[in-house]
Amino acid sequence: MKTHTTGANENAYNLVTVIANIIKPIPLGLLFLYGVQGVADNIEGAKKKAHADYMGLSGMLQGTYRVMEMRCICAQESEWLREKMYGMEFLTAVRRIPKAAPIGEDGGNKGMGGKNVNPDSQRTLEESVAGMADHEYVVQILSTPVFTSTLKEWALRTERDMTDWNGQL
User: Fold this and answer.
1) φ and ψ at 123, to 5 degrees?
2) pTM recorded for the entire structure
3) CA-closest candidate to residue 97, choices 53, 136, 142
4) Among residues 135, 35, 25, 37, which one has the least CA distance to residue 83?
5) Which residues sit opposite 15 in a β-bridge?
6) How far apart are alpha carbons 55 and 49 in whole angstroms?
7) Residues with Cβ within 8 Å of residue 151, at least 6 apart in sequence
8) Rounded CA gap, 28 and 45, in Å?
9) Are strands 29-37 and 137-143 parallel, antiparallel or unpaired?
10) What Cα–Cα distance (Å) separates residue 40 from each residue in 43, 59, 117, 142?
11) How far apart are alpha carbons 148 and 95 in whole angstroms?
12) For the segment 141-169, what is each residue's pLDDT rounded down to a tens digit?
């Protein structure tokens, strides 16, 4: 998953990923659904951007995962998915800024000598998916590229705010 997410970020795609495990009414198993969101000043521009970005994403997926079965979701599958999403008992929202790594995975917790001090932190999404194989769930991931300059500005602003707050103590 790292390869196409890195490519999507480098191409400034707004990536939409849905991972669902459908067991009832028919055990479809694990579905990985990929798409993009087109963002523009008007609806026609957004459609054009979404189409171009989706064509690029499709090429990346086909080039990266050559043995993957890639097809459009059928109406019945999308209806089951909609029912699952609206009927789930629990909802959890998580917001984070991931760090892209040049290797397969990186826990981001390096100790002395550049060793990962927590090797169990690697591949957490894959481990979560495997651990929930007997349960129905839907995971929706919305990935929006953020420029490094924007992240630096956010960090600088947070630093200033924390300094101001500390001065008020």
Assistant:
1) 55, 45
2) 0.65
3) 142
4) 25
5) 36, 143
6) 10
7) 97
8) 36
9) unpaired
10) 7, 22, 43, 17
11) 17
12) 888 877 788 888 988 999 999 998 888 87
Sequence letter at residue 145: P
The torsion angles phi and psi of 167, rounded to 5 degrees, stand at: -65, -20
Q: Say how many residues make up the chain.
A: 169
In angstroms and rounded to an integer, the radius of gyration of the C-alpha atoms of the chain is: 19
80/136 Cα distance (integer angstroms):
11
- Three-state SS letters, the chain: CHHHHHHHHHCCCEEEEEEEEECCCCCCEEEEEEEEECCCCCHHHHHHHHHHHHHHHHHHHHHHCCCCCCCCCCHHHHHHHHHHHHHCCCCCCCCCCCCCCCCCCCCCCECHHHCECCHHHCCHHHHHHHHCCCCCEEEEEEECCCCHHHHHHHHHHHHHHHHHHHHCC
Q: How do residues 23-72 score in pLDDT, each as one tens digit?
A: 888 888 888 888 899 999 999 999 999 999 999 998 888 887 778 778 88
